[in-house]
Amino acid sequence: MIHKTIHITLLLCLLSNVLLKAQFHNDSLTNLFPKPHIYLKTNPLCMLQGPIIFTSEFRLSAERMTAKKQSFQITAGYLGKGAYLYLFESMQNSNYEFKVNGARFGLEYRIYLFDKNNPKPEGMYIAPAFSYSYAKITDAYSSSRNEYIQATFINYTIKGGYQLIRNKLALDFFYGLGYKDNTWTMNQNQSFSVLPNNDFELFPGNLKLILGFNVGIVF
């Protein structure tokens, strides 16, 4: 009986030790990886002007914590006809119609700089970022002949910003500096030709400047 009691006691001690280690491990993981909230954000002003002139953008960004004070954000957007083209169409006497179709994709990895005890992606941050955008611009007549102008924008930037979170609302301000590779091509008579950027851009060149904001909700 005494030996049996000793064995049971040792078994309980061993089990308690295993549970304590498991709890410590779970607590460590919880501190390292905060609750998997997803922050969905957009900018309604992009529906007036997208990343490419002549376009509008319907954008959605999703941010999720990957480690303490670090997060990953992915952005996707549909590019359609912009305000400039709608205005031009309204000034025509005929039923002239532009057609625009495109998309945007972006990635960034954020590092939040201060308040290391805050489990939310909040405060000042820096982030390397990449984005790819393209759009085909044509009209009803040219579209039937498979003729169009295509714009392709590739950006590599370093962003800085500040994100504020209150309850379920997020407000994200950002700016950035980097490198851009913008290309304009024309498809006509089954052949492609490169167009000069000066014909379409106010600030041609490889210097990329960004300034903007997003608003969103927390899930």
Which terms would index this structure?
elongated, single chain, Porin, 219 residues, eight-stranded antiparallel β-barrel, alpha+beta, 2 domains, 9 strands
TL;DR of this structure?
The chain has helices spanning 2-32, 83-90, 140-144, and strands spanning 38-42, 55-67, 70-81, 98-112, 123-139, 148-166, 169-188, 191-195, 207-218.
Written account of the structure:
With 219 residues, the chain is an alpha+beta fold. It folds into 2 domains: 1-32; 35-218, Porin, CATH 2.40.160. It is 20% helix and 54% strand. The chain has 3 helices and 9 strands; from the N terminus they run H-E-E-E-H-E-E-H-E-E-E-E. The chain has helices spanning 2-32, 83-90, 140-144; strands spanning 38-42, 55-67, 70-81, 98-112, 123-139, 148-166, 169-188, 191-195, 207-218. The protein has an 8-stranded antiparallel barrel. A hairpin with a 2-residue loop joins strand 7 and strand 8. The longest helix has 31 residues, at 2-32. The protein is elongated and about 60 Å long. It starts with a helix and ends with a strand. Mean pLDDT is 85; it is low at 2-6, 8-16 and 18-34.
- Second rung of CATH, namely the architecture of the largest domain: Beta Barrel
Total domain modules: 2
Helix coverage percent:
10-25%
Radius of gyration: 26 Å
